[in-house]
Each structure stands twice: as structure tokens, then as C-alpha cells.
Write a structure and sequence with these properties.
Elements: H1 26-35, E1 52-59, E2 62-65, E3 73-75, E4 79-89, E5 95-107, H2 113-129, E6 135-140, H3 146-149, E7 154-158, E8 180-185, E9 196-201, E10 213-217, E11 221-226, H4 232-248, E12 252-257, H5 264-269, E13 304-309, E14 316-322, E15 336-340, E16 345-349, H6 355-359, H7 361-376, E17 386-390, H8 396-403
């Protein structure tokens, strides 16, 4: 079966309803039953042994290797696991005889509950395979972290998914009616200068925006619409995307600047024949975890540090600091802490934390997210990036956040 064949996910998936909170549930037991004693995906002789990038998609409770020629391409109906392994530098800047690992489980906006729960469970399993030193990230389609976006020179998000009957246009070039609209833009979360987002959007004129480049694939012809305020790098990246599209089929390509009168053809093809406006504005499909939105507005929750501890004989979840500077000295290696920077949620696991404290971080993090949603009417908290680090294996992003 082709990677993105299957049934359309009819329901928009709400992250807060499941994903990480499913560990210990019926889905957890199903996963254990299907995965058996050993996970083949982790046992190819490369995982954990050498630097590199590895991606798997969740398919019917199984972890299936994603084709390397599709790295950076994701489908909104799916859940994925991404492992980035790298050589750790020693104090003098040289390469130490050690690998660092970051594991991301990426949840598409229309992934199923089973897929999301399996991705969460398998991420924990992969971390255990890597001796518990990996940094774990929960990534949502709508709110990618800087670390995740930085892994790919081109992050492409399209419709469809493994468990859906949606056949993508690349799978059926002979279809009589094809209308696919891709939006190409530089995202605030991109940590590298050449990293851009290619996101499939609704094929309607209301999706157009003066700030970006759009690629309209009509099957027999491809149109490129360059917004008046788009950047040169966005134009260049759109040209690369078009080049990849025409490799599979020989069709005409026409590039139009929004300033040209003929650019109205694209608006008409998208159902805006009678629209007379000259300027277009549409919200981007992804938000930035940096708190800086395309409009320039900054949104952030109060900064909080919370402790998970069973030192009293009972597992407790207490607020340590709120709207105060959080430093490394505030952390205790005997406990687990949740640090909400207001833009991202970090979980810090002390090296001497008890088994119950370590096992409960997922449930307490989810409980905290629900609290924020209910008390502050912050709907975006459900899709905010969440990352867990272990004492002694913190990454640069966490160390920067904790010292601010």
C-alpha cells in the first residue's frame, strides 16, 4: 500500500483528549500485546549506535520506517516518531565518545486516538531502549517547536494519512479534477535560515495571503502565485517544490506575481472570480512556540515551576514559583519538576527521583495543561510543545530557558 492511502479521518483530533494520557489505558495494553517482547524498529544495529535522523510512522499499532526520500514530509492524519542522534561535545568543544538523543512524537491534527496513544507509548519505549537519557518531545502539527523545525530544510504537511481512504494527487495523476493548494512560508520557529514550511491548505481564494507564495496544482498545469510581500527565499523554495512536482509529470508551470493583472487567474481558479479585493490575508496554519506570531503579537502564559514529589509518603504536585526567575538551584535531583516558560512546557527529571515520581510526569503534565485551559481560557495550552529532560543530559534549549 502507498504511504498515504487509506480512509479519511472525518473528525478533527483534539490533542487534549488523549495522546500522552493514554499510557496505562486499554490502548497501552493493546500496544504491548502487538509489540511483543522486542520492537524490530529499534533493532536494526543503527538506532542508538551512530549519529543520524530516523523517522517512523504509526500504522495499525506498529512502528513502520518512513522512507528516507520523504523525510520532512508529514500527513495530518498520522502520528510519527522522529529520533535525532548526535555526537556530544566535550568541555573543550571536541567530540566525546557519547551520543545524545532527542525523540519527538509528532501528532497530526487529524490523527486517530489509537495512533497518538501508540506514538506516545513507543516514544517512552524508545527512550528506555536508549537507556533513559533521551530528551522526549511532544510535537503537535499546529504548534511545532524550534528544535523540531530545525531538523528539516523543508517541512511539508499535507492532507491524508495511513488510516484514511484519501488518495493524494501524487498517487493518481490521471484523476480528472485535481486542485491542490500549497502555502510556502518562513516560520518564526525555524531555527535555520534555509528552513521553510510547505503546508497544504484549503484550495480556496480565502487561503491566499500577501506575505507568502502559493502553488496551485490543477493536474494539467501548475500555477505559482507570489504575494506582494513574500521574501526571495520563499520564492526560491517554492521553485524547488515545483521542480519536485514536475519530475513525476510533465505539465506547464506559470509563475505570477500578485502585482500582475494576470495573477487574478489564480484567484478565479480558486473560486474568487467575482472577488474584487486587491489584498489578501489569511492566518498561517502553524503557530510559533516562541510566542511571536506573524502579526507581531506576543502571547505567553505566566511562568511557573511545579514539583512532583512523594517525599511526604504521598505523591504531591505543588507550585514552587510563579512569575519569578527560575534557576538551576531551584531544582532538586530527588524530585521531578514541570517548568512552564509561558511558551513551552519542560519536564525535568532528577537523577534520584523515585520510580513513582518518574512514572507520573505524563499524567501531572496533562493535568497542569487542563488546569491552564480551564482557569485561563488558554486553548493553545493543549497544543503547546512539551519536552522532558533528565538531569545530567539537559540540552542547550533547556539550559537557556532555566537561566532566563
Amino acid at each position: 500500500m502507498a504511504p498515504h492511502e487509506g480512509l479519511v479521518h472525518l473528525k478533527e483530533y483534539d490533542v487534549k483528549d488523549s495522546n500522552v494520557e493514554l499510557i496505562g489505558s486499554d490502548i497501552d495494553h493493546k500496544v504491548k500485546f502487538n509489540s511483543a517482547a522486542t520492537e524490530p524498529a529499534w533493532n536494526d544495529g543503527q538506532i542508538g549506535a551512530q549519529p543520524g535522523l530516523h523517522i517512523w510512522r504509526i500504522e495499525d499499532f506498529h512502528v513502520v520506517a518512513w522512507p528516507k526520500n520523504q523525510y520532512g514530509q508529514f500527513y495530518e492524519g498520522d502520528s510519527y516518531i522522529v529520533l535525532y542522534s548526535y555526537s556530544v561535545k566535550d568541555k573543550d568543544g571536541g567530540s566525546a565518545d557519547k551520543l545524545g538523543h532527542e525523540i519527538f512524537f509528532w501528532l497530526g491534527s487529524k490523527t486517530s486516538q489509537d495512533e497518538a496513544g501508540t506514538a506516545a507509548y513507543k516514544t517512552v519505549e524508545l527512550d528506555e531502549f536508549l537507556h533513559g537519557a533521551a530528551i522526549q518531545h511532544r510535537e503537535t502539527q499546529q504548534y511545532p517547536s524550534e528544535e523540531f523545525v530545525a531538523l528539516f530544510p523543508r517541512l511539508s504537511i499535507k492532507r491524508g494519512g495511513v488510516a484514511s481512504g484519501f488518495r493524494h494527487v501524487e498517487e493518481d495523476p490521471s484523476a480528472k479534477e485535481i486542485t491542490t493548494l500549497l502555502r510556502v512560508f518562513k516560520h518564526p520557529a525555524a531555527g535555520r535560515a534555509d528552513s521553510l514550511i510547505v503546508h497544504e491548505v484549503e484550495p480556496t481564494w480565502q487561503s491566499l495571503d500577501d506575505n507568502d507564495v502559493f502553488i496551485l496544482d490543477k493536474g494539467d498545469k501548475i500555477w505559482v502565485w507570489q504575494g506582494n510581500k513574500c521574501s526571495p527565499i520563499e520564492k526560491a523554495k517554492a521553485a524547488q517544490v515545483v521542480h519536485d512536482l514536475i519530475l513525476a509529470k510533465h505539465v506547464d508551470v506559470e509563475v505570477l506575481s500578485q502585482a500582475e493583472a494576470r495573477s487574478r487567474v489564480v484567484v478565479s481558479l480558486l473560486g474568487g472570480k467575482d472577488v474584487d479585493q486587491l489584498s489578501f490575508q489569511a492566518s498561517r496554519p502553524l503557530r510559533s512556540s516562541s510566542g511571536q506570531q506573524p502579526s507581531g503579537e506576543t502571547t505567553a502564559r505566566p511562568k511557573r515551576l511545579l514539583r512532583i514529589s512523594d517525599a511526604s509518603g504521598q505523591l504531591r504536585f505543588d507550585l514552587v514559583k510563579e512569575n519569578q526567575t527560575v534557576r538551576g538551584s531551584d531544582l532538586d535531583g530527588n524530585d521531578v519538576f514541570i517548568f512552564d516558560t509561558g511558551k513551552k512546557i519542560w519536564v525535568w527529571e532528577g537523577s534520584q527521583a523515585t520510580r513513582s515520581e518518574k512514572a507520573s510526569w505524563i499524567q501531572f503534565t496533562q493535568a497542569y495543561i487542563r488546569y491552564v485551559q480551564e482557569s485561563a481560557a488558554d486553548s493553545e495550552a493543549a497544543v503547546a510543545p512539551v519536552a522532558k529532560v533528565v538531569q545530567g543530559n539537559e540540552n542547550a534549549a533547556f539550559l537557556k530557558a532555566i537561566s532566563v
